[in-house]
Amino acid sequence: MSDKFCNKVRKFTTDNNLAGSHGDTIIVGLSGGADSVALLSVMLELGYECVAAHCNFHLRGNESMRDENFCRELCRELSVELLTVDFDVSERCRHTGESVEMACRELRYDWWNGLINKGIGNLIAVGHHREDNVETFFLNLLRGSGLVGLKGMQPRSLNIIRPLLDTTKAEIISYLESRGLKYVTDSTNSSNEFKRNRLRNIVLPEFEQAFPGAMDAIATSISYLYDNYKLYSDYKAELQKKYVSADGTVNINEIVASEKNARMVLFEILSNAGVNMTQVDNILASINGQGACNVSGKLFHAQSVSYLLNRGLLIPVDNLENESCESVDIFKHPFKIEKFTHDAFERLRATKSFRRDAVYLDGRVLDGNPVFELRSWRKGDRFTPFGMKGSKLVSDLLSDAKLSLADKRNVRILTRNGDILWVVGLRAANLYTVGKNTSEIICLTYDFHNL
Q: Which of 25, 149, 208, 326 is the most exposed place for a label (fewest CB within 10 A)?
């Protein structure tokens, strides 16, 4: 049985490209329980260089120290280096608000990844087995999950490998007995306070009793779902290329026009950003009867990014709030000033030679040591544009100009003592305009390559 177990783990490791036969140093998460002890032993038997890593969370009093001491003795017998760390889980929970289970997981993986960053190893092996995978399937099913959750654990997730994922608990125990290896048992495993324990101790045994062979059948279904997920992921990557631009903008109109399952396509494209199905439905509700979206300016907030819905485009605006504002000397780059007499200005007017990328101002704009600032436009900015009697929102000016969101982000406002003087490159304000009594005119331009 033990040789069969080793061969099974070897085949699974090879088939799933979990680790090369040479050059990999594997950090084995060692709790002292049956799964982690079997994992460390079998990886050593298969010829891998291993380092054991044990976390002491100090949650079970003397039992926690018992586990650490057991791991020390085991590693001495197996001639394996053991790394240990102590954690104050209660302190972590107070600071983060996480559950004890989540805090332990985050602390554990942060430490393991830190060991990789130090060059101690390049892979982390954990002892998840078939029943663990079945439990994960049910936990996700009961939370409400799609294919991503129901596929179960992956044999490899970045630098995390699970060489025992195809083995059963019974096979693990049998292997340990054949090698004469002892292990410790976590007393909390018998407590049904945690959902996973209730599944393990109550629900799944009832399944197996009522439907003999249920665990094998469920495990097989999970493997099929994992294969479906790989195919689905390839298709999702193609959709990403088709409908998402380099800056992350999603073309909603194109998705609706081209995809029969537009709702699921949009959800899969946005799910990595934390957009949920309710938000997808709200986005799609903006589509009119002709299949086009004319909504502009509506924001949707996800976990990692916010999106602005703008005429059928869903545009990431995660850095929209990063406002810039600085005092500037308009006699220096990126500005440039030219001075004109009134007669020279009138000749420009007569020949319609005014520059569209410039603003022409009464020279008195420089009187009195004014403070000029160049800043991003803000929601609610309002000014009186040159040639108009009433005021106008800068946001409306930008919408009328049909600027893309990227262009809107780059729009700058030049102010004089806090008053909007120029929406740079677009419209001058009705301030310091050239009149009959103007003796000196300045032409102010801005180098847009500076943006």
A: 326
